[in-house]
Backbone:
């Protein structure tokens, strides 16, 4: 049974490492976070740290979502164009 569970966890990591995860509508935001945290704990104990990095990034995306539609303040290339 343990090998079956390992396969399920590896299937979960395959899904979570996709660029865009299609979450089930029934999952709340908190449940998504809990799922990723639980998966991260599993792979930490298993000492599969490459998978932990993937999960940590996904967890950061869930806990600190990027605001879309706002332009970041920073370097403005048009200033260089106006100098010439």
Residues:
């Amino acid at each position: 049974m343990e090998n079956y569970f390992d396969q399920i966890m590896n299937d979960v990591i395959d899904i979570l490492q996709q660029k865009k995860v299609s979450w089930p509508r029934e999952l709340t935001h908190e449940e998504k976070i809990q799922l990723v945290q639980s998966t991260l704990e599993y792979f930490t104990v298993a000492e599969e740290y490459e998978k932990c990095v993937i999960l940590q990034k996904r967890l950061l995306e869930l806990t600190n979502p990027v605001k879309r539609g706002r332009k970041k303040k920073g370097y403005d290339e048009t200033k260089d164009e106006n100098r010439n």
